[in-house]
Amino acid sequence: MPAPAAQPGLAYHQVDVFSAIPYQGNGLAVFPAGGALSERQMLAITQELKQFESIFLERPDDSNVVQARIFTVEEELPFAGHPVLGASAVLHQVVRREDDQAEWLFRLGAREVRVTTWLMPHGYRASMDQGAAQCSPALGGAEEAPFLAALGLTREDRHPDLPLQTVSTGLPYLIVPLRQGIERARITHPQFGELLASVGAKFVYVLDPATPEGRTWDNAGLLEDVATGSAAGPAGAYLVQHAVRPEEHTIAIQQGARAGRPCQLRVRVRREAGALLVEVEGDVVLIGQGTLTRLPAP
Question: For the chain, which residues score pLDDT lower than 70?
Answer without folding.
Answer: 1-8
